[in-house]
Structure formats: C-alpha cells, structure tokens
Amino acid sequence: MNILNSVKKIPGGMMVVPLLLGALTNTFFPSFFALGGFTEALFKTGATALLGAFLFCSGAQINIKQAGISVYKGVILLITKVLIGALLGILVNHLFGLYGVLGISPLAIVSSLTNKNGGLYAALAGEYGDSTDVGATSIIALSDGPFFTMLAFGATGLAQIPFNALLAAIMPILIGFILGNLDANIQKFLAPGTSLLIPFFAFPLGAGLNFSQLLTAGLSGILLGIFCTVITGLAGFAVFRLSKFKFPAVGAAVGATAGNAIGTPAAVAAIDPKFAKIASEATAQVAAAIIITAILCPILVSFLAKFDKKHNSKKSEVTNNA
After folding, report:
1. CB-neighbour burial class of residue 215 (10 A; exposed 0-12, middle 13-18, buried 19+)
2. Where are the domains of the chain?
3. Looking at residue 68, what DSSP letter applies?
4. Nearest-angstrom CA–CA distance, 260 and 166
5. Among 161-165, 173-177, 269-273, which is the least confidently predicted range?
6. Is the pTM of this model over 0.70?
7. Other CB atoms closer than 10 Å to residue 234's CB: what's the count?
8. How do residues 96-108 score in pLDDT, each as one tens digit?
9. Burial grade of 4 (CB within 10 A; 0-12, 13-18, 19 or more)
10. Region 294-309: what's the mean pLDDT?
11. What are the residues whose beta carbons fall under 8 Å from the beta carbon of 169, sequence distance 6 or more?
C-alpha cells in the first residue's frame, strides 16, 4: 500500500487528512482514545505540546544570516496576510459588532485570515516557484501559529491580549531560532520536525472537532473559507506581481488557513471573556475554512500560474512583433 504518497497527492494532505481522521474519530467514537496515558496525550489532548515542538523546529530553520530575496518575499507576504485579516476584523467589528455579518464574526475572520498554512505554501512554492519562494517559508511560517493572530487582536483593540500570552506563543520559535543559529547541527537536526510533526499535531486538533460543528458552521463557514482564499490569496498575488517577482502566482499560496487556527477562538475567549459566547461557533467556522481553503488555494495558485504564463507569452509576442 502506498498510503503516504496518496496522502501527499491531496492538497495540504499531510495536515488535512489527519485532521479529518481526528474529527471523524471524535464524531463517531469520541471515547476511542480517551484511555489516559500516552495514547490520550498523543491522539486527543496533546495538540498544544506537539504544536509547540513544531514551532520550535520551525524557529530553528530561520537563519539570522539569511538575507536577500527570500526574506523580502517572506516579510511582504507575512505583512500582507496579517494586515488584511486584522483590518477586515476591525471593519466588521466596527460596522456590525461582535456577531459580525453573514453569520461570520470578527473573531472567526481574524482567526482564519491572519493564519497561513505553511506546509501548503511550501508545497505550492516548490511546484510553482523557485528556491527563493521556498526559502520564504521560514519567515511566513511565523503566521502559522497563534502569535500574529493574537498580536492582531491586541493591536487592533478587538481583544485584551496580555503580553505574557504573546510571549508564551512566540517563545518556542524564539528559543528554536537562537539554538538553530548558534549551532548549524541543531538546525539540521530539527529540520525534519517541520514536516514530521504536522500530522501528529493535526490529528489531536481534529480530535477536538465534531462534524456536527462543521454542519453548524454551514454556509457561513464555507463563505469564510472562500473569502480567505480569494481575498488573501489575490492580495499575495498582487504584491508579488507589483514587486515584479518571477513567479507571482506563488504569492497566492498564502490563501489557506493552517490547522492550528482551530484553537485560536477558544484561546482568545479564554483571555478575553467577551468572546466566550461566540467562540464555539467561530471554531466551527474556522474548521470549515481550513478544509475549504486547503481545497481552493491550490486551485487558485494553479489558475494564476497559467494566467501569468499566458499573459507573459502574449507580452513576448507583442514585443517580438514590435
């Protein structure tokens, strides 16, 4: 059986498939892994620790000596993604209040739009871009976790986020970054963790979901996923094209929401109680957005790559005939 390759053929499969398996298990057999000990920690309750390990490994891959185009690409994509999500959250909160519009709350908007699926970006960058696009992963991977999402909430005033909460979110990345730059062998040793740990934290994240939540999310969850891919994906494409990068379609690869965004609404609600009433609904919508964006984002990148190639061919023809 060629299970691994089959999973990899699915867009974002290393995250989406374990996530869905975890959700299926929790929906139909909620007590299956509730055995305590190692089993329950690995398959049901250990997402936070596993995600922390993933962030630690990712931090170690950010080379302080790295410079040039990869860092530039990563920074502008990171800023674009977080800024758009934060501004849309502020706008919706200002115009429609805590419960939002079309059933989509500012909590769900910021949680999904500011968070990016780093694994999916890396895969799409490798397929449609070059080494400089792939190299940007280590920078924009910072938005895979809750730090920038919580920073957006705190900076915009949508929630009161204590400094300790922000520090706790970034500490694994920071420690990994320091160790990875002090010793190249540590960086190399931790590198496999940036991919190996994805299905491990994806499954327990999924095990915190129930498909009844996806049904509850309904049309609003689907719309959130579409908005996330179209708005942030096209924005990424636009900034790459305006910057005259060789493969602008790769910019659209930020239009997917990472699996760990599921925990953001509950985390924000735990810090600021005013969000408690809508946290469960926002969680369901973000869960739906994760699945929808994992499907739509690769389609958008592929379409834009073909569009750009066709546009460049016509431009070359006009230049040659001139």
Report:
1. exposed
2. 12-314
3. S
4. 16
5. 161-165
6. no
7. 15
8. 988 888 889 998 9
9. exposed
10. 86
11. 145, 146, 147, 150
